[in-house]
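Recap from last week: sequence in, structure out.
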Amino acid sequence: MLPNDYIQQLRSVEVRARLVSEQLMGGRLGSVFKGRGMDFADVREYVPGDDVRRIDWNVTARLRKPFIKRHVEERELVVMLLVDISASGDFGSEPNPSAGVTSQREMAAILAGSLAFSAVRDGDRVGAILFSDRVERYIPPRKTRAHVTRLLHELLFTTPKHSGTSISAGLRFLNNLFRRPTLSFVVSDFHDPDTDGWTRAIKASNQRHEMMALRMSDRRELELPDVGWVLLQDPETGEVLEVDTGDPLVRDGWRESGQARRDQLLATFRSGRIPELEVRTDQPWTQRLQGFLDHAARRRIA
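Predicted structure tokens:
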């Protein structure tokens, strides 16, 4: 049996996730969970007014006249949440009442929960892959609210056996498990030392699945406060660094390094045509998430 404080934390996160889900589904959002997949049915001869982008050029070349592909909409979508539960997710520089979270991991749970509740409200199945530098937990897709509560429990209270991060491990597990396309959200701070490896993996996964990146971040990744000498420890490697935050050059270098990393991540996602949203622990994000999903829905329809 879970202690009372654990139960209270779970209920608090569940309530906030439900509220965000209701805002997402109750607004002008062209739901990202609808109309995702189209199964190929057959071909038919082209008639004026048909979308030329649906022309099947192989059949057209063989039969010497234009044919277009016909599809039927998939009735059920599988939504997969690939959530990073490595040690760096426990970081949160300061509680923020407007954001309502104390750590990136709690933020990830609320974010993933809101997506899960939205998916099951549309009748879709949702599952999760929790990873550190390997897959720590797999929750198979289901489509009930009770299942989402279980998913939130695992997100909040699964203790990873390893502290590092390997996004590639989660993506390999996804690709080996699902042959048919899924709508998959990678929720991570993307502090993966194997940059080339995970970059190749997410671009390759996007060829089979529809990948979206939700990048967790904190203001201290870009800003160091002037508080004199401090000891900073990497939660994943244990490395300790002594830093003079009173030195303006140190603070400027920290900010430039953080901005360069951010720009590199943006370039990676753009080159792979993977929609990306930065979600910060110190800022409200519900409206930005709604806009992000709305844009993704329009992009799919187009």
